[in-house]
Amino acid sequence: MISxxxxxxxECAFDTFSKKVMRFEARTCxxxxxxxQQREISFEYLLEETSFEASSLDDYFVVQPTLDSYTExxxxxxxxxxxxxxxxxxxxxxxxxxxxxxxLMFFLGVKEKEISVMRGLQRSTINYHKNRSLKxxxxxxxxxxxxxx
Length: 149
Fold this sequence. Notes:
mainly alpha, Arc Repressor Mutant, subunit A
């Protein structure tokens, strides 16, 4: 028969052992993650450093559009070509600064934080204006849908 004091001793010893194992396992995980962070390069960082898209699309049987079929917008000295006439005309109806903000974010890949620095506004303000601009753009495109039907 095992005495109650001995049972308590065994439980305490097991608890102590378990805590040590978990603490050392946490340290090991932390070291592994730290080592990975030092050696790995973020995919977003690679995309910022390259001037080409990270994906490709094969258009073997699609007629390639000519440059005349694109609508050209200039934002911060960079040209943005938009093939869709509906999207281009809806963008034209937006105020210039909202259009520029959408083109920077969605076509040139500029982050909200960078736009907030450029405009001198808070990032949350830029996010609000982005959502509002997208809502206006959606409304303009829906109007165009109803007009063509």
